[in-house]
Amino acid sequence: MTSGTMTNRIDRLASRGFVERHPDPADRRGVMVRLTDKGAGVADDALIDLLQKEQAILTGLSVPERQQLATLLRTVVLPFDHA
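RESULT FIELD:
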């Protein structure tokens, strides 16, 4: 993602009150971005919704199928853990 794309996304989040910018105390050229209470609430709600949807998807799988899926997903994600 380019810095321009990142700035655009942060601008939109800031305009909705989800994040706020602060000067980076270690580097005057940088900016620190922090979730506001409103932004943290929206993120928490989104995570709860995601977990509920994942749970609904998994209810159709048996225990052995869930174990097989977990093993396969670990295999897929493992290269990213080492990056």
